[in-house]
Amino acid sequence: MSFRLAAYAVCIRDGRVLLARHVPPKGETNWTLPGGGVEHAEDPFDAVIREVAEETGHDSVVERLLGVDSGVIPAAERAIPGGPEHQNVGIFYQVRVTGGRLRPEPNGETAESVWTPVPDIAGLRRSSLVDVGLALAQTLPATGHVAPVPIGGLIPH
């Protein structure tokens, strides 16, 4: 089994959520939250601020920890065939943009970032991370744990 620890930003402003259009080298394009892998010896708190800057061009501050989600993607459902099953542990933070200018990620897999009205998200091909992050932001569970998000339709792993 492969494993990834990642930090994700849930940025909500005026009824809009900051989303990043992820264009992987292989597989389909989808919308996701700004964020990504925590580097070796990096604090996830610092990682989410770094990822927002890298992927969107925005400066940001963490306002609060929203929660942690853990999910296992079966080998047969991985975007890259032939790999083992994969566990992703995501740490979700409520993040506020403080400056910078929206732009694509230079030399990265984020083609663009946009402020998307919350009602429009349901019609987007998106990562399940978007739904997890929004559920955490809307419910603010005391335990920091959200019920599993069903995967299907427009929502890939």
Tell me about this structure:
The strands form 2 sheets. Strands 5-1-7-6 form a 4-stranded mixed sheet. Strands 2, 3, 4 and 8 form a 4-stranded antiparallel sheet that branches. The model has no long low-confidence stretch (mean pLDDT 91). The chain has a single domain, classed as Alpha-Beta Complex (Nucleoside Triphosphate Pyrophosphohydrolase). The two termini are 16 Å apart. The chain contains 2 helices and 8 strands; from the N terminus they run βββββαβββα. It has 157 residues and is α+β, with helices and mostly antiparallel strands. It is 16% helix and 40% strand. It has helices at residues 44-56, 128-139; strands spanning 2-10, 12-13, 16-22, 30-32, 35-37, 58-73, 86-100, 110-117.
* Nearest-integer average pLDDT: 91
Strand neighbour order, sheet with most strands: 5-1-7-6
CATH architect. name: Alpha-Beta Complex
- Report Rg: 15 Å
The unreliable regions are none
H/E topology pattern:
EEEEEHEEEH
CATH topology: Nucleoside Triphosphate Pyrophosphohydrolase
How many extended strands? Answer: 8
What's the CATH class, please?
Alpha Beta
User: Helix share of residues?
Assistant: 10-25%
Multimerization state: single chain
Number of self-contained structural domains:
1
Amino- and carboxy-terminal Cα gap: 16 Å
The helix tally amounts to 2
Describe the secondary-structure layout.
Elements: E1 2-10, E2 12-13, E3 16-22, E4 30-32, E5 35-37, H1 44-56, E6 58-73, E7 86-100, E8 110-117, H2 128-139
Parallel strand pairs: 1-7
Antiparallel strand pairs: 1-5, 2-3, 3-4, 3-8, 6-7
